[in-house]
Structure formats: C-alpha cells, structure tokens
Amino acid sequence: MRNLMLCLCVLMASSLAHAERLKDIASIAGVRTNQLIGYGLVVGLDGSGDQTSQTPFTAQTFNNMLTEFGITVPPGTRIQTKNVAAVAIHAELPPFAQPGQSIDITVSSIGNSKSLRGGSLLMTPLKGIDGQVYAIAQGNLVVGGFGAEGADGSRITVNVPSVGRIPSGATVERAVSSPFASGTHLTFNLNRPDFTTAKRVVDRINDTFGPDVAQALNGGSIRVRAPLDPNQRVDYLSMVENLQVDQGNATAKIIINSRTGTIVIGQDVRVQPAAVTHGGLTVTISENFQVSQPEAFSGGQTVITPSSQINIEEGDSRMFVFNPGVSLDEIVRAVNQVGAAPGDLMAILEALKQAGALNAELVII
Hints:
With 365 residues, this protein is of the alpha+beta class. Helix content is 22%, strand content 37%. A hairpin with a 5-residue loop joins β8 and β9 (155-158).
C-alpha cells in the first residue's frame, strides 16, 4: 500500500510538472496597459544640449515656455542655449492606476543633443491616444551612458547617453475606465491561441467551480461567468487565475536565424524516411612567381613569370538515414555525427522540407 501511494504521488507530480498557472498563459480582456507620450525640455545640461541653429524647434519651444512666464524675447533674437534639449517622453500607464500614483518614464533626445546626463525634465503633460492628459512628468534624469570628446575630434561613447529614465517621474492625473467591474462575464485571452489549451482551460474551470461556468469562444478566448459585486469578483478571479492548466503542444516548427546561425527545433518535429549525404569540395588556388635570370654579359633581361597551382580536395561524404517518425534528439545526434556546421544544417533542413520528408513548418528569419 505504501509503495502504491508513493507511485501515485510520483505520477501526480509528473502530471503537474508541465502545468502552468492560468495567469501566466492568459490575460483578462480590458485589463491592459496604455501608452502615454509627451514632448518637453530638459535643462541644466553641461554644454551637451541641442544646437538651436540646426534644431529650430528647440528654440521655439524654449521661447514658448518663457512667454508663459511673462518673458518676451525681442524679435530677431537668436538664442543659443547649449544646456537645453528637446526630448520625447514615453511611459506605460498600468491597469487600474489611480490619480496620485507614480509611474516610471523614459526620456529620449529628439534633437542633436549628445548627452542628457545631469539634466532635469521640466513639467510635461503626457497624453494618450485620445489626446487627453493622463499624467504629468518632471524630475532629474538617470542616464546610464556617457561620452567624452577630445580637441582633435576623437570621441568615445559608452552605452547611449542621449536616453535616460526617471523612476516615479510622472504622477497620474486621470484614471482609464476599465470594463472589469461591468457585465456578468469576463474573457480570458490566451497568450498563444491553441484549441487544445482552450479546451483544457474550460474543463479545469468547470471542474473546479461547476458546469457551464466557462465557455470557449474560439481557440484563443474563454468566457467565464463572474460575480457582479467587485469585491467578490476580485476574490473569485484570484482563485481562477491560479488554477494549474496543461498547455497544448505548439505546432511543430523549426526556426532558423540566417544572420546569427541560430537554429531552434521544436519537440514535435518529425522526419519521414530520408537519406542525407554531407560533404563538399575544397578548392585551393595558390600563386607562385618564378624568376628567369639571364646569363652574365648576355644582354638579356630578368623576367618574372607567374605560376598557378590548383588543388582540389573532396571531403568525406557521409550518409545517414532517417527512419520513419525520427524524433528531435535523433535528428540532432545524426547531424552532429557528420560534423555539420550551422550553415550546413540549414541546407539539410531546407532540403528535407523540399523533399517532403520534414513534418514541420520551416521559419527563416
């Protein structure tokens, strides 16, 4: 009896080894981040700001700011402020963010400023896609890069000094409405749509909370009945999103990055019966020069004549056979035995696909 219980525990552990929490493989429709963007000025730079002669919008923005404070710049005045830079600010507004909370922002130079190190961002409104102001940004920049330049024009730059961040640099001024607390149902959207995964999610929820609580809308969305009271809905979703679900296996794919030589083969890749030979020719051409020296006092001239030598070596051609239903491990082992380089492996996989012996999608990026 003890051994039987031990076996059952091992089986249960193995069955849950590949299970994932629902919150890790799906998201709730409507509960999402929103992108914010703004345009402003960074001041206090140590001579690394925009050259206003080449970026007139920086001078225009600076003049507009002075006008708001009651300072009028005489017409025709050419402003040269090397400690000011025009920047773009972007941030992500988290779901359920409320007025008064802080969010991180990223500040990027849009002019010809060489570095934002030591600068301070002046008060800048951040707007959403609807044109409404959702946050106000201001603060001192944290820049990870730096640069140095010599009098002879030599320059060294570490990382990117023209981009900086301000932790908690923006204050939320407006909340984004969310459909979370409305309606009688919520929808879970799978991060990787799959009919098998959708079915397993529905079965898992219904087995836990009762029949017909969850319904699959398609291979990527599951509608779940939820309480109307917001407090009960939060408690309910806390239990739902922590349910363990076994994901369905992904489509058999082979990803090839032709630039880096990286090859990723999925676990469900199979090969039909096929024979592959691997080998090649190595052609070496060497140029030698021979000197023809005339005899003494013969009146002849020294002549240099080229001599070419061509050597052809044929590599060892090895053939290996793929039996029906060969697995990923056997494919990799067979190819490694013949010493194929990443480029050769790409050619072998492409040839197998063209021959109809590769039961997988070949994706080249």
